[in-house]
Amino acid sequence: MHLRKNGTLAAISLCLAGAAAVLGCRETYEFDYLYQELPFDMEKVHRPRIPDRQVLLTDFGATGDGVTLNTDAFRRAVDSLSSLGGGHLVVPEGIWLTGPVTLKDNIDLHVTPDAVIRFSSDRSLYPIVETVFEGLDTKRCISPINASGAKNISITGGGTIDGSGDDWRQVKRSKMAPAQWKDLLASGGFTDDRGNVWYPDSSSFRGSLVSDAFNVPQGMVSDEDWESVKTYLRPVMIGLKECENVLLEDVLFQNSPCWNIHPLMCRNVIINNITVRNPWYSQNLSLIHI
């Protein structure tokens, strides 16, 4: 028994030392089960490499009371980590109201289990930017969480990210109970001529009148034209463009203004053990658009 135990330990030691070829040991790949019996060869995905460094959002003046706007604190935290080569931005317990957050290379947005990042419904915080929607070059409001050309980025931690989508989305009467519809009308907004669709404001309503079947406004020439339909240009909650080595894991995404997750022309993306939750009456709230 004593010799058997020593032999096992020796084999483990050799395997860890790099003698896998001799002993037949190999490192376990966590996503092996996804590649079984594929009819084609597919490159294996790997987690992004995030430096072993962390900062707290509160170190940059943030207040998690659900009322204080923390856009500048998020920006300073991301910029600080970026200047050091990256790391983990830890969002502690609390409700953290903010405008858009832009991720940069080598940064993990770590939303702890008792933390909620809640994006402001103030549409002035979301500039209109060039993007791709429904496969078409167009413009939309910038995504609450966004990145362009970034490498090694992640959103993790077990917390919640709330897009405040109720303040952006139009609603069809047929998707609501009569009492819900009555309350919605009482909140303000506009309806179409038949009273079948509710819009949060005149900008959203106008956008619906000038858009094609792909929900893309037509005839927009000037910046003023685009601004006149801004609310209709609902942002995708997680908008990542041409990024590489991306991980979304163990996070709840809820109440998105439009699509939930849109990794556009990204490479090596892992989406693992996430939850997406939206009202059943929501419009255009696909889980993932790739």
UniProtKB/TrEMBL annotation:
This is Glycoside hydrolase family 28 protein. InterPro entries: GH28_Enzymes, Pectin_lyas_fold, Pectin_lyase_fold/virulence. Residues 1-20 form the signal peptide. Transmembrane segments: none annotated. It comes from Candidatus Cryptobacteroides gallistercoris. Keywords: Signal.
